[in-house]
Write a structure and sequence with these properties.
The complex is a heterodimer. By secondary structure, chain A is of the alpha+beta class. Chain A contains twelve helices and twelve strands. Chain B folds into two domains: about 5-75, Beta-grasp domain (Ubiquitin-like (UB roll), Roll), CATH 3.10.20; about 85-145, [2Fe-2S]-binding domain (DNA polymerase, domain 1). Helix content of chain B is about 30%, strand content about 15%. The chains are: A alpha+beta, B alpha+beta.
Chain lengths: ~300, ~160
């Protein structure tokens, strides 16, 4: 029984940081044993995954500055501890951010969305079904990290590659999306949950595109999530889309061929081959959603 | 570490480790057994409680996150023995089930109706994505919720609908 497995085990330490400098100092002091804890939805599930929950945790949820979503003339800045629910509520309604708004509004379930954060979604490296990460990839977002050595801005794809290799004391503080670049684009997020009402996604296609006056795609950015262990760009289809209108009849066949480049991960909810099989379908859905956005 | 919080209107103190799941404190220390420990991974919703008005999974909420917060459990819904409108609707629609998933459903739906007083059927189903029932299903529960449409106060204006 889970009750017996969990109720009497000892629990690790959690230090609740009072400010960003306090959190960075606490993480640096704890060295390799330190780990930041934001909403906690991933780390608290470690025992069920059969993983040790034995790090020295530094809690971030009392740091108000990390919970802010700010819009300036040049960028949209989202704090690392903004929850999925807050993001869905506060993102300005705009086709440019639609991919991120949909990802935030549809991920997991309502109670987890109330708790799980942007920073946690970016940093939970073994959580393959993250919704926000592919959405941020298609929006060309920049991740801001801060540590004892100062602050650094990293493209989201480079961040995902490096996310398990930062020196102790490094913390994701937020994400920025360039406002002007995003304004010229439309974006969307197509995901397949096993239940129509919602669930964790079997596969995700996040897509943004800039459409020329002639109706043809100037450039597209596509990211695929939940199919493989780590989300990544689908550059083959980005190149295929360039120069074609969104209603190009040949795109679906190209997506079926190009999806063979993915190796699906097996999971209890879906085998790997199924995730790859549904990928071209999600691609078509994303295109249909983009066309609706383009028509607004 | 001492955590001070308010549960169903009563100030409480716990000295359990800060990473202790909130549900264990509610059940073991405070004898509030309405929230159930089932999946312990934020998937089934049987442990749903309100933390400062937001529905959360108390199995994956560390105790430290309740510090200074108001926690509401299913035990608080019937004030002075009077069923809440949601609870009463469940009784009228004969939707009450075995009691394992049901307290969590009540907490999820109470928060949902406060934010969405006139929900569509699809919205109700989406609100229940994190509450798993393996007994009789969801249809009578959905009907009961829809019967309450318009009986809750309108929410604050939202930036994004």
């Amino acid at each position: 029984m889970p009750e017996n497995r969990n109720a009497f085990r000892s629990h690790p330490d959690l230090y609740m940081a009072s400010s960003l400098p306090d959190a960075i100092a606490a993480l640096a002091q704890r060295g390799e044993r330190g780990q930041a804890l934001a909403g906690g939805t991933w780390i608290m599930r470690a025992p069920v995954r059969g993983e040790a929950q034995d790090r020295d945790y530094v809690g971030l949820s009392r740091i108000d500055t990390l919970r802010e979503l700010r819009r300036s003339d040049t960028a949209l800045a989202i704090g690392a501890c903004v929850t999925h629910a807050q993001l869905a509520r506060e993102l300005p309604a705009d086709p440019a951010w639609e991919a991120l708004a949909l990802a935030a509004a549809k991920s997991a379930n309502p109670a987890v969305r109330n708790t799980a954060t942007l920073g946690g979604n970016l940093c939970a490296a073994s959580f393959a079904a993250a919704d926000l990460v592919p959405a941020l990839m298609c929006l060309d977002a920049t991740v801001e990290v801060e540590g004892t050595g100062g602050a650094e801005r990293i493209g989201v794809e480079a961040f995902v590659e490096r996310r398990e290799a930062f020196v102790p004391g490094t913390l994701v503080t937020g994400v920025t999306i360039d406002r002007d670049a995003a304004r010229r684009r439309i974006s969307t997020h197509a995901r397949l949950p096993l239940r129509r009402a919602g669930d964790y996604p079997v596969a995700i296609v996040s897509m943004s595109a800039q459409i020329g006056d002639d109706g043809k795609v100037l450039d597209a950015r596509i990211a695929v999530g939940s199919v493989e262990a780590v989300p990544r760009r689908w550059t083959a289809m980005e190149e295929t889309m360039a120069g074609r209108p969104l209603d190009d009849a040949g795109l679906a066949a190209k997506a079926r061929l190009a999806s063979a480049a993915f190796t699906g991960r097996d999971g209890v909810e879906a085998p790997g081959w199924y995730r790859v099989r549904v990928l071209p379908v999600l691609f078509e859905r994303a295109i249909a959603q983009l066309r609706q956005g383009a028509g607004r | 570490m001492t955590v001070v919080f308010n549960v169903n209107g009563v100030d409480r103190v716990s000295v359990r480790a800060p990473m202790t799941p909130l549900v264990d404190v509610l059940r073991d220390e405070l004898s509030l057994t309405g929230a159930k420990t089932v999946c312990r991974e934020g998937f089934c919703g049987a442990c749903t409680v309100h933390l400062d008005g937001r529905a959360v999974m108390s199995c994956i909420t560390p105790l430290a996150h309740a510090e200074g917060c108001e926690v509401r459990t299913v035990e608080s819904l019937a004030e002075d023995g009077e069923l809440s409108p949601l609870q009463a609707a469940m009784e009228v629609h004969d939707a009450v089930q075995c009691g394992m998933c049901f307290p969590g459903m009540m907490m999820s739906l109470t928060a949902f109706l406060e934010a969405t007083p006139n929900p569509s059927r699809e919205q109700v189903k989406a609100a229940l994505v994190g509450n798993i029932c393996r007994c009789t299903g969801y249809e009578r529960i959905v009907e009961a919720v829809l019967s309450l449409s318009g009986r809750f106060a309108a929410p604050e204006a939202r930036h994004h609908v």
